[in-house]
Amino acid sequence: MKRILFMSEEEARTTLYCAGLAGDYEFYVxxxxxxxxxxxxxxxxxKFINLRNELExxxxxxxxxxxxxxxxxxxxxxxxxPVSITCMMVIDKHMDQVLQHVxxxxxxxxxxxxxLDHKLHFYQFCKENDIAHPESKYIEKSEDIRAxxxxxxxxxxxxxxxxAGGFNTLVFVKNQKEMDEFLQKPADKKEGxxxxxxxxxxxxxxxxFNGFSINGDVIASSVMKTDFYDKDPDLYFTYFVENNxxxxxxxxxxxxxxxxxxxxxxxxxxASDGKLMLIELNPRYWARVDVSLMDGMNFLEIGIKxxxxxxxxxxxxxxxxxxxxSFTMLARAIVLYRDLNYIKYFxxxxxxxxxxxxxxKLFRLKAKYKLRKLRAS
Length: 377
What we know:
The chain contains 12 helices and 15 strands.
C-alpha cells in the first residue's frame, strides 16, 4: 500500500476527505498541532506527525525541509502531497533536494503564484494576453482614493492584491456615500485591504473552470456554475455544465503560464452583453473541491494518480444533481419565505453530498469528544 505524506499548515479536512477517497493509500499527515487540532482524528489520517519546526514560508525553511525529509525516510513515504499555497511554496523552494527522497504531486511554483495569485499581476497578465478582465485600478493606500472620482465607475470592488477571493475579504461599494463611509473608518479597520485593486463590478452568472495541469498541459477539467438564492446569499446551488468558451479560456491561461497543479478560475458571464470575463485565479486546491465528487471527478485523486503514473479519470459528467450550500438554509427558504418551488432541490441532492455530510458530521462529533477527553486528562 502506497504511503502518502499529506502536508498542510492548517486544518485541511475537505482535501483529506477527497484524498482518502482516491484509492488504497495510507495518509500520514504533518503539521503543527496547535493549528491541526482535529485533523489528527480524521478517519483517513493513518498517523499525525507534529512538526518541531513551524510549517510556514519564511526566509530559512531549511530546518523544516530537513525534518520533512527525515519523516519521509523514517516512514517510507512514497509520495508527498502539499495542499496549500504555503506548503507548495516551501516545497518549490527546495524542489531538487526533496525529489531526491520522494515523488511529489504536481504543484505550482513561485513564478506562477507571483503572476496569477497577485491580483495586479494577474490583471496585467490578462491584458497582455487579450483576456477579458474587469477594468481595474491599482491603489497603494486608502489615502490615494478620491471618493468623488475613484477612477472606476460605481459600483466597484476593493480587492486586496494578495487577498483570497470571496466577499469576506472584498469590499463592495455601491456609490460615493459608501466609499466615504469606508474611508472614514479607523486605519486599523481598512488598511489591511491595501494595496488593492479598485475593480469594476457588474451583474452576471458565476461560472468556474476547475482544472489540473502539468507544465501547462491540462489533464483534467470541468465547468462549474453557481446560482444564488436572492433572499439569502448563504444559500446557493452548485452544478456542472458544458461550456467550451470557459474550457478554452481556462486551457489558454494554464498553457500560457505553463502552470502545474490544481487550479480554480473564477469567471463571470456579464449580464449586459453575455461576455465571459475573468475574475481571479486560485493556484491551489479550492474551498469547494469536494463538490466535484458529484461530477465524478476527484482532483486530489487526479493529482495523486498522475504523480504515481496510475490511470486517471478525467471526464466531467455534468449530472443533473445540485450541491446545496446548506440544508438548513434550504429549509428556511421553504418555510420562512414560503418558496415552495425550492422543495424540488431536496430531490437534486447528490449521493456524494449526502455521503460527505454524514462523514463530516460523524467526524466532528468524534473530534469534539476526543479533544474534550485530551483536555481533561
